[in-house]
User: Fold this.
Amino acid sequence: MLLIIGPTAVGKSKVATYVAERAGAEIISADARAVYRGLEIGTDRPPVELLRRIPHHLIGVLDPWESYDAARFRADCERLVHEIHARGRRAIVVGGSTLYVRALTRGLFPGPRADPELRQELAARPTEELYRELARVDPQAAGRIHPQDRVRIVRALEVYRLTGQPISAHWGREKPFPFPLVVVGLILGRKELHRRIEARVEDMFRRGLVEEAGRLWEQGLPPAAPATRTIGYQELFAHFRGECTLVEAREKIVAHTKAYARRQLAFFRAEEGVHWLDVTARPLEEVGEQICRIWSEHDPTLECRR
Assistant:
């Protein structure tokens, strides 16, 4: 199975679509936010015509207040791959959500499911405070988790609270993903990646990101709802609360997206066996053809149509 990873705005979705058309494949999204309805612009969801042409899965299937985590993604991914293979097609997983990727590349330990009430409590606390608690109860995990990686910090504290054991005690007990993976990572030069991020944010505002965030804001989402902690929406929610101007919110979205891309890349760089491709100034078709060749080297039965 092909897994395409990389930082936000690197062009994963377009490349995955190209390869899917050539290989007769279906795409499974590993994006922790694209799974929600109502976040189309802020998650840069592929256009409707593309979703109709190439089957996509785990996009826009949940309401914005529902909980979803790496364990559920892993289970859904296994089910979907079986179904796709049963149709005589191939599966491509594409995304940048680090824990979702890790659930496939390194597996998951059989830990407790997410606890909504506990998540609500933790969501109301600043990231810095949560990290200090993690450093106290699980220094080993704190040493491996970035101080601003709120998702992993919350999960580590959740496991500790629910099991009485630090999450680091569970490392090494992970259940591997049942399908062999061919992992391709896409990277861009720093200046080009930042230019794309700035252009993407500008395009999102042009297409109505403020109005989309306003509709979510009017729903009165609880603090633990994913949208309230998603780049693009959290900054605009702060603007709606009168905490910053719209210009300041826009600047924060760009800055936070760039910082997120750096964290993604650092996380993915720690993965083993990744075929890294620098796609700077390279045509989409050229990158897609190279990925097809890499995939074929691992799976001689693969035929990429021209």
In short: The longest strand covers residues 182-187. The chain has a mean pLDDT of 93.
